[in-house]
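Dear colleagues,

For the upcoming journal club I promised to circulate an example of a predicted protein-ligand complex. I picked one with flavin-adenine dinucleotide because it came up in last month's discussion. The inputs are reproduced below in full, followed by the predicted structure.
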Amino acid sequence: MKVNKLNVLSNVKVSDRYWHIKLDATSIKDSIEPGQFFNIKCGENDLPFLRRPFSIYRINKEEKTIEFLYLVKGKGTIRLTDVVAGEEVDVFGPLGIGFTLKPEWDTILLLARGVGIATLAALAQEAAEKNIKCIAILSARSNNDLLAAETLQGFGARVYKVTEEDGTSDVEDVKQLVVQLLTDYDIKAAFTCGSKRLSKLMQNAAETHHIPAQIALEEHMGCAMGVCYACVCDIREENGISSVRVCKEGPVFDLEKVVLG
Ligand SMILES: Cc1cc2nc3c(=O)[nH]c(=O)nc-3n(C[C@H](O)[C@H](O)[C@H](O)COP(=O)(O)OP(=O)(O)OC[C@H]3O[C@@H](n4cnc5c(N)ncnc54)[C@H](O)[C@@H]3O)c2cc1C
């Protein structure tokens, strides 16, 4: 089993709605890939009963630390904010299939919204390590929710911010931006997370521009081990549509195969 009790190094509020938690990952021996996730026990005494899934946000191999950026949403994430430095959290992972980043893709486009930005930040980190140029469109309700933008810029990514607050996040506006960037930067592959509408947009744009694209899906999960089938989604295969588990066969899939509805 991949259950670890990890020491909490910090757990702090970083904006109106988001918190950031940093854990000592010395005891994790598996390699951790961007796009993979951990299923975290958010409170003591089995409350809430189900763990909550969070994508890896940052990996520091030298420090042996891992970080998560989380939106405070309901019972689980509210409990998680109670954890303080020096305590331990029970994490299960790394889980799932992460992103594939081919060396021949010298320039990539990221399109993320909301908590999806946290998921793609780890990919921007890997791109920087592999000298792959990263262009990122980050979408959120407000500028206050775009705190991970600085993290991506720190990895050398060229960041374009769109928000409801600024009136720049309409799907049509983002579509125009995507098409412009695909052309301007000679993008070789695209990656998306956090919004079905934007993912559909990216799916169409990737098909039109003949580039590969991947998506990290987020679905409600029960066990996160492939047993309960709470997180199934539909995938287009050669011989029709099949149902796959986001926790086991994903969460990252080829975008062209995903039925987005
Ligand atoms: C792979 C993955 C990566 C993610 N990464 C991040 C991240 O990096 N940052 C972030 O902020 N968020 C992330 N999320 C979303 C995050 O898991 C949820 O926001 C979090 O679970 C909310 O928990 P809560 O108790 O605060 O909210 P609530 O909405 O109160 O509870 C949500 C929980 O209810 C249960 N539940 C509700 N409906 C169902 C259902 N139909 N079937 C099964 N269980 C159900 C599940 O336990 C679910 O996790 C990710 C989700 C996935 C699947």
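Two points we might discuss: Residues 37, 48, 50, 52-55, 68-71, 73-77, 115, 118-119, 218-222, 230, 251 surround flavin-adenine dinucleotide (CB under 6 Å). Residues 116-129 form the longest helix (14 residues).

See you all on Thursday,
B. R.
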